[in-house]
Design brief:
Oligomer: single chain
Radius of gyration: 26 Å
Distance between the termini: 61 Å
Largest sheet: none
Number of helices: 3
Protein name: TraI
Region (Disordered): 21-64
Number of domains: 1
Strand content: under 5%
Organism: Escherichia coli
Helix content: over 70%
Order of helices and strands: HHH
């Protein structure tokens, strides 16, 4: 991608670098403001695995 573009003059390069850095800072600030997931949501995959395991135990013990 970059190899197809002509070299920018020093001033334009500096401006482009500053602009990209500013965008990255904005993204970092935005992600910091996003609320963290509740613990119950984070534990959901483990709960699902536990329920599947329990169902399999019931089938094995029940002789179905």
């Amino acid at each position: 991608m970059a190899e197809n573009k002509p070299d920018l003059t020093d001033g334009k390069t500096e401006l482009a670098v500053r602009e990209i850095a500013g965008q990255e800072r904005e993204q970092a600030v935005t992600s910091e403001r996003e609320p963290a997931l509740p613990e119950s949501v984070l534990r959901e995959p483990q709960r699902e695995r536990d329920m599947v395991r329990d169902l399999q135990k019931e089938k094995t013990l029940g002789g179905d």
